[in-house]
Amino acid sequence: MAPSRHLHTLVRRALNHKHHLTRHTGAPSAGAFPPLCRGFASAAAGGGGGGGGAPRAVTESELLGANRVVEASLTLVRERARLKAEKVRAAGGAEATACLLGVPLGHNSSFLQGPAFAPPRIREAIWCGSTNSATEEGKDLNDIRVLTDVGDVPVQEMRDCGLDDSRLMRTVSDSVRLVLAESPLAPLVLGGDHSISFPVVRAVSEHLGGPVDILHFDAHPDIYHAFEGNPFSHASPFARIMESGVCRRLLQVGIRSINNEGREQGKRFGVEQYEMRHFHRNREMLENLELGQGVKGVYVSIDIDCLDPAFAPGVSHIEPGGLSFRDVMNILQNLKGNVVAGDVVELNPQRDTVDGMTAMVAAKFVRELAARISK
């Protein structure tokens, strides 16, 4: 059902200020905010709302304004998901269709915040004319039953209206739930930094009614309790995931930057951490994984920095000695299990200076994940 004229008006008013926004990196200037949200956003960012002192109290009108932006965001996702699902069902024969949902969030990065710019670059690379629309196993991405797209969660617009991370993460979860509510859509999420994985996995698990197994490719375990005091840091999503009970078995592959806390947290949660220094001895086992039995399926999370920077230099945290693209593909394509959702995160377009090479790598991951998710 199409949204009412009132909802169309609401969406336009809440989101049409996008052209006034500053870049995602750093804190926007006060003048970048629409009048309704300016004080709320300044307070949330730690500013004094004009006087330089303690943040002032948020007014009721500002809170209502922020609520309207959230409502508008969810309305956009809901109506797009309904439309795309109707088209998929009309085509017939699909049990699951990979559905792109962008989450351009970068402020939880501990070093560089460029991943906020990644979703449009990944989409551009997916449909780049330098390659065709076929996946390696022969699925056609032009078939709406294989891949569709509902656009982005407007993260920056919500931040500009003062949403804190707790509510922002809930809104990401709600957006994923709206995609899942429209059968046969299955979320394939474009980051953004790795903090987005927690709200996405939470929504997937809750929708399916139980925990999933997670196959996680990364140079880092991202399992700090609260990196630099931030429980929503991109270095902490898997601590939140494991605490929440939404994952039964977590396998981390490609690890090569891990300290004592990372190892202790891994032991605490029973994580299977496969470090690159031992990859040669684990390769055969990893290329014959069987996951998802006895739970609701398999979630795949790919941090682009799992790869050696020779293959993917456009990331915030360059860690030499990583996986090759084919290493990851061999594991993913040989995986025995029902892949129900996934994400591709941590592309930093601001560092992707070699003809967009890393965006093409991220797009290739998305294409092949779509092939695994779609059925």
Task: Produce a short descriptive summary.
With 375 residues, this protein is an alpha/beta fold. Helix content is 39%, strand content 14%. Strand 4, helix 8 and strand 5 (247-255) form a beta-alpha-beta unit.
Q: Could you explain how this protein is built, in words?
A:
The model is unreliable at 1-53 (pLDDT under 50). It is globular, with a radius of gyration of 20 Å. Helix 1 (5-15) packs across helix 3 and helix 4 (118-126) crosses helix 12. Strand 1, helix 4 (118-126) and strand 2 form a beta-alpha-beta unit. It starts with a helix and ends with a helix. The protein has an 8-stranded parallel beta sheet, sandwiched between helices. It has 375 residues and is of the alpha/beta class. The chain has helices at 5-15, 38-44, 60-91, 118-126, 155-160, 165-180, 197-208, 237-244, 260-269, 279-286, 325-334, 357-373, and strands at 97-103, 147-152, 185-191, 212-217, 247-255, 272-275, 298-303, 339-345.
Blueprint (SSEs and pairs):
Elements: H1 5-15, H2 38-44, H3 60-91, E1 97-103, H4 118-126, E2 147-152, H5 155-160, H6 165-180, E3 185-191, H7 197-208, E4 212-217, H8 237-244, E5 247-255, H9 260-269, E6 272-275, H10 279-286, E7 298-303, H11 325-334, E8 339-345, H12 357-373
Parallel strand pairs: 1-2, 1-3, 3-8, 4-5, 4-7, 5-6, 7-8
